Amino acid sequence: MHTMTTHYSRILQAFTALALAACASSGPGEPLQVPTPAVAGQAGVTWPVTTRAHIDLWLHGFALISPDTGRVPMFKRGYADRIAESKSRSNVQTSLDVNRDRLRARYETNRALLSAQFLAMRFGSWEDLRQAIDLFLRAEGDPGRAGDPLAQQIIATFAQTFSTAADRDWLRLFALSLNDENERFYRAWWTQRQTDLAPVRERIQSLWADTYNARFQPFLNNTQQQAGEWILSLPINGEGRSFTFEKRSNIVVGTMPESRDAANDALYVFAHEAVYGMATTAVTDNTTPNDRRSGVTDAFISAAAVRAGYLLLERVAPDLAPGYARYYLRGAAAPATGDLGAALTSAFPLPEAIREAINRQLAVILGGI
Question: In the β-sheet with 249-255, what is the strand arrangement from edge to edge?
Fold first, then answer.
């Protein structure tokens, strides 16, 4: 037991302290505490805009095995097809391609695996994440087989999602396939895409630092999201990933737009994620346990986040509100013309009690601003 802990000392030091309470998360999964690293060139920005290769790699794997039929897409439409075309041009086939059907079959039958998408945010690199997975698998999911409390925490965290031997087999296959994908294709592809999209990233950073950080900040301050890290992710679409632990320890994983002209798309998804915790509260306070068991609550949360993001922008950045509405209407394949507020209401319907709860919360949060 002691040798297991010693072997993994680096990831134990890198692993952030677990805080699985008082936290909002977009999409399925458990809340997390994450570090907020300083980012060069963004001094004074409370939410620096960054990229993270290992988080993109992890989500890339899920994008290739997920059916993603939600009203608000988790991953960019056509992402898997574009990746397949790029591999075909390079005459590359990886273990992820070979094992894709096996991975998808288990993923579709065990929806609890959705929460695995959030695990990469706990680690600082792909190597750290790989070692943590190895630690968990060597222990066969049993925290008692590690002598160090941090190692036990890591194993227990993975065990929440991968609770059975079949789940652990799935994780083993996924991690091995993803590592081969990274070595033979993804690392080079991701690096090239970052170079290609550098003007887009710089445009987003400029918009945020010069204009919109200040407009969002009062809302963020009053919702325990004072500071954090905003990660632009290549696979992500309108349904981002967000975590709120405490005022200065948050993370948002949002979309990386494909062109400089579409830079505002990133701001739209950030707004959607910023209101996610508030929207979740409005829904859970106005639904029943039966609604939660049937999946109705989850559907309402998705719609409520879209609607709440629009209402927030109407108040703090009204110039962004029309574009936000069009972005989410397009994502839902709904008409994006005429009265955009009415179009959102039609495309993302909510019970009146939830709508009123969102408005009340916004009034309280933004009161006096």
Answer: 49-50, 229-233, 249-255, 241-246
Low-confidence spans in the chain with pLDDT less than 70:
1-44, 244-248, 368-369
CA distance 216 to 226: 10
pLDDT at site 71:
82
Calpha distance 171→12 (Å, rounded): 20
State residue 15's pLDDT score: 54
For residue 275, what pLDDT is reported? 96
pLDDT at site 87: 97
Quote the CA–CA distance of 61 and 51 in Å, as a whole number: 17
Longest dimension (CA), the chain: 66
Q: What is the pTM of this model?
A: 0.88
What per-residue confidence (pLDDT) applies to 68? 72
Amino acid letter, residue 60: H
**Residue pair 143/156 in contact by the 8 Å Cβ criterion:** yes
Identify the CA nearest to 116 among candidates 152, 185, 184, 163: 163
Alpha-carbon Rg for the chain, nearest whole angstrom, is: 20
φ/ψ bin of 247: left (φ > 0), alpha (ψ from -120 to 50), beta (otherwise): alpha
Long-range contacts made by residues 333-336, C-beta under 8 angstroms, separation at least 24? none
Euclidean distance between the first and final Cα of the chain, in Å? 55
Q: What angle do CA 146, 144, 13 make, to 5 degrees?
A: 35
pLDDT computed for residue 122 by the predictor: 83
**Cα distance between residue 304 and residue 35, in whole Å:** 28
Asked whether the beta carbons of 238 and 328 are under 8 A apart, the reply is yes
DSSP string for residues in 59-112: HHHHHHH-----SS-SB-TTHHHHHHHHHHHHT---HHHHHHHHHHHHHHH-GG
Scanning 110-210, the segments in alpha helix (DSSP H) are 126-138, 149-161, 165-181, 187-196, 198-207
| Spatial CA neighbour of 207 closest among 255, 266, 249 | 266
Q: What is the pLDDT of residue 3?
A: 30
